Each structure stands twice: as structure tokens, then as C-alpha cells.
Protein 1
Amino acid sequence: MGVIWDSCIWVALATGQLTKQALINGTGDATVMTSVVSLGELSYGVHTCADPAERARRAAFFRQIESSPMLGISKHTADAFGLLCASLKQAGRSPRPRYNDLWIAAQAIENNCVLLTLNGKDFADMPGLQLKVLNASGE
């Protein structure tokens, strides 16, 4: 079984909020994959950074992430995404502000992966999602 890192995990690693050891503790020996949705979010962070030195640092980190195993979006992902959106709406919550999270969760469901995040509330009560919430110590 693989692990998909939520975008916040990549950001926390890049900014030193999480150590590599904490991520090893949280991931174990599972294959780590990146969602193309996270890649888009991280690319946005590179392109909107006003400070040239910080933008260069982010771009270098982004290039490293691009070399990790990548999960694309398929028709099965789209079906899982629709199911997640519908379940949130039926629970009285709007899926709109969380579309990127829902796409990443749909990829985790489709690929039978655990989704590793720092923001458990973003993914609470999503049917079929295997979720692991990490804290700074990697637990």
C-alpha cells in the first residue's frame, strides 16, 4: 500500500516544520506518491512568490518533488471525486472550498493509498478514505 502526501506535508518539509525523520516515522516503508493536484498547488506557490531568493528555493524543491512517483487523474478518480462531493453535500457541508482536497482524497481512494496530512479536519468523514494525521513528531 502506498501513501499520498497532502500538499501541506510537502510545504512543512520544505519549510522545516517537519523533519525527514518525522516523515519516515509517519510513512514507514510505504511508497510515497504525489498527486498532480498537489503539484499544481505547489507550482502556484512558486509562481506567486514575490521574493526572488525564496522563489528560487521553492522552484528547486518543486523540481525534486516532480521526480517522485506521480498520480494522475483518471475517470475512476473523477467518479470517486463525485461521490465524495455528494457525500459532503448530503452531510450539509459544501464541497466547493475543498475541491483540491477532494481530488487528492479521490486519488487516495482510487489507488488504495493512505492519505498523510497535517490537517485532519480537511478530510474528516470522507467515505472510503484511509487517513493518517501526522503531527510534528511524526506520530
Protein 2
Amino acid sequence: MLKTLLLEDDPTLSAEIKTYLHSKQVECDTVFDGELFFKQLRTDSYDVYLLDVNVPKINGLEVCRIIRESDKTTPILMLTAFGEVEDKVEAFDFGADDYLVKPFHLAELLARIQALYRRKAMPQLEMAFVEIADLKIYSDEKKVTRDEVEITLTPKEFKLLNILATAKGRVLSKQQIADELWDYHIETNQNTIEVYINFLRKKIDKEHAIKLIHTKIGFGYYLKAE
């Protein structure tokens, strides 16, 4: 049975989520603060983490960051009332895989959990090494260099760069990128893509005469030495 660990300090919502998930054959343990979350992790293992942001002691974003220091693969779904693009970008930068804004339908929560679990169980094949001009992307090490200088990227920035690189110069629409970058479509995905493209350009292209990240107006983005 798929196992989830829920960090949520609202007892009513926590109970509703647990009861619903159990009815759908998804096990759900619950804790109400960040310290209890890590205490629970020492006693059991889980397939998906569900994290509210505004919780006592250690907030959900910090919990997410700490998890990602040692665990790069277990999916993390943020559950929060903060729905601005900037809030989502911050969560993804901390290592979250998906983001669900309260209030939400429990059926949508289940769909996202299942999508995250399927992606973990059947990871996409990645090329071990990609080279475009003087840019090198090492998928296994999650490392990027340009002109032999290492570039620090967040997990979502790295994933976006890898999506563009493996397209081998093809133009990808915002929707195509969003479908790969997130496990379940959310309304602001396409706006957030623009934010991440700008982040990448500053880190990948800003200091170099040859630009690699390009926009085809009205169509999307591509990565190519031109």
C-alpha cells in the first residue's frame, strides 16, 4: 500500500485527509509540527511526503530543505494557503515536486499523490552526460558546468535545463515544459516557466558571449549553440 506522511497542524483538515486517503487504500500517518515529522521518519519510511508550510517548530519549507539534503528522490507535495507564483517558486527551489493551494478537493490531492508515486516508481531515463557547446550536464551527479566552471542550480532549475537539453534543439512550448517539470498541471505553471527560464539565463548565459537558451516568440524555448 502506498504510504504517505502528512505534516498538517489543522486537526480537522488532517483528519479529513487521513480518512479520505485510507478510503482510497492510501496509508496516511499524521504529525502536527516539524520536529514530530522528523521523529516519525526515524521510525518508518514513506512513499510521498505531504507538507503544510505554516506549521509549528520547523515550518514545511524548512522541512523540505532538510529532507533534500539527504533524500533526493522521495516526492514532496506542499499543501498551503499561499498561492502566489513567488511562493511556488520558493517551494520548488527548496526541493518540492508539486504544490497544492488550499482549499483543494481531496480527489485532486489523491490524483497528485498517485502521479508523484508513479513517477518515482517509473523514473524517466536520463542521459548520463549531455554536452552543448561548452555547457556540460551530468545527470547522475546533478552537476552543471560551463567552460569547466561549475554552476549551482536548484533542483527545479536543473530539471528544466535537462528537459531543454534532452530535446536536442527542438522548441518546447510552455505547456510541454510544464508537463515534464511538474507531475500535475497547476494554473500558474506556465507563468512560473518564464520565471525559471530567466533564472537559468542569468546562471547559464549571462557571463558568456554565446547564448544557449533561446525564445521562439509565440512557440516556446530551446537550448542550442547559435
Protein 3
Amino acid sequence: MKLMVFVLNQEEKLEEVLEGFLEIGIKGATVLESVGMGKIISSDIPIFAGLRELFVSASPHNRTIFSVIEDSQVDEIIHIIDKIMGGIKKEPGKGVIFFLDVFKFVGAEESLK
């Protein structure tokens, strides 16, 4: 099993991403509102306000999606996200996705079946 973490910088794509997950058999995910470090540093910490130009491409808000998935779904997820995002692998700033090994998963095992 893997923990998928996808930081989606284009909030308007959230519904399409979740629909894509359903199409490939992902039945459950948690979606959190999130803010990147660049946004906080450039606007909320006065001493760094002068660095605002460095973070121009930083999305002010994003969504972080977590889901425990089967190992066999990793490539499908990367493919569907890349397709929906129009090239996440080629263009920085659309989001990031990574996977971590899960040692044990308890509480919603039926969502993996």
C-alpha cells in the first residue's frame, strides 16, 4: 500500500481530479485546504515582504489530497493527474504528487477493495 499525497495548485481542477480518481477505482480521499510556504513568507511575514517577486507563480491557495492506494494504482494515478493537469510532469507550478509506503492501514480497509 501507498499513501498518495497530491498538492493541487489549480483549485478549479479539484472536481475533475476527484472524478478521475473514481474512474480508476480510488474510492476514498481526504482533501484539505492548504497554503504554500511562498505565500506565507511573501505576504504574512513583513521581514520577507521584499521577496514577494520570488514567489509570483506561487498559488495563493491550494488543495492537498491524501489517499491510501494499492501499489498497482501508482502509475494510473500519475497518468490521470498528468492528463487532467495538462502536463504536470512538464510544467512546474501545477502541483506535486508523491507516494509513501504504508506499513499498516486500519479503519477503512473496505475503501481499498
Protein 4
Amino acid sequence: MSRELIDLGWFGLGLVPVAAVTVMLLRWRNVGLGWQPLIAIVRASAQLAVIAILLAGVFKTPWLVIAFIVLMFSTASWTSARRVAELHHGRRAAVTGVLAGAGLSIGAVFALGLMDTNVRYLIAVAGIVIGNSMSMVTLTGRNFGRLALDRRDQVEGWLALGATPQRAYRDFGALAIKEALIPSLDQTKATGLVTLPGAFVGAIMGGASPLEAAQFQLVVLAGIMLAMTITGLVVTAIIGRSPYVPMP
């Protein structure tokens, strides 16, 4: 294991030039992300090294999978909460959205027998679905905030007429969810023609047949779609209860 970790560390360092070029291009266009791409790669390398050690223990002691999934949920909730903290009950919306969206989706996948009840499958599906729920919180929350701010006169009008906050913000919630889902929908529709998703490639590299890999990928895609939809609905329902008109 130590030799594998050393190899992973050197591999991570080998990715630094790629991230460095990314940083230079973004700085050239004044995008304003600073060193975040480089930091993200370095951080991911360190985290994957730690995860490799943890997974070795989880696979040998299956009950540890619960603790590992709790860690994934906690990290995803904390990360997404920071992105939407400025919104009405944004942190609560993020945590509830991730737990509800990913939790229900993962539960449905295994309850319907779409995947074998296996520790490796559970961790793989959970990691992918939870990650997409986390992204959905950020995309939906930021879209919602931008739409509400741009159309604050409409919100003020509804509230002045005595409408509930849910009614005043309802249209923004629907639009925010739609915009957040479009990239995922496009990628799903283009699967196999434009892209070979990571779950499919990973399954094949792990020794699965192309048919088995395709089945695994379809389960993941369906799970992602369900999780993102539930997450978006929960997030917009919570932040859309704000009784205040958004201010720039």
C-alpha cells in the first residue's frame, strides 16, 4: 500500500503542470478564480491518497461503509452549504437537499434491485450520486438567487398583493431547476455517442463486460437524475420561503 500511495503522490504532482496552465489561462482572461484550480488538484491528490487507505479498511470490514457514507454526506453538505449560505436558510436547504436527494435516490436503486447489495457497488453509487446532489445545490441555489435578484420587482409586486413567499418565488424555482438540469440532460442524451462516462469506463477497467458496464452506467445516470431533481425541489422550496425582497 505504501508503494501505491507514493505512486499516487507522484502521479498527482504530474498533474500540477496541467492545472498550472489552466490557472494561467484563467488569469489571462481575468476570470478571477486565482489559484483555485491548482489547489483543487493538489487537494484532490491528497484526499484520494487518504481515501485509498480508508477504502482498504472498509472493504475488509464492511460495516465501516456506514461511517464512510456518512463522511461523504457530511462533506457534500458542508461544501454546498458554503456556496448558498447567503440565501434564505441556504445552509439548511443545502444539507436537507443533499440528504433527501442522494438518500432517496440511493435507496431507490438498491430497493428496486437495480444493483447488487454489495459494499463496492454501494460506495461507488453513493459517491457519484452524492457528488451530483452537491453540485445541484450550488447550481440551483445560485441560479435561483440570480433570477430573484434580476426580477426583484416581480417578487415585490407579488408580496405587495398579499401573495405568499412560495408563490412569489415559485417561477424562479422552476427556472433554476431547469437550468441546473440541462447540462446533465445533455450529457445523458449524448452518452455513448459523445462521451464515455467515468462509471462505464471504470467498470470496464475493473474487469466488467461492456454489457455489465453499460447497465451500471444506466443505473448511475438514472440515479443522478432522480437525486438532482429531488435536491433541486427541496432547495428551491426552502430558499423560496423568504419573506423579503432580494437586494443587490
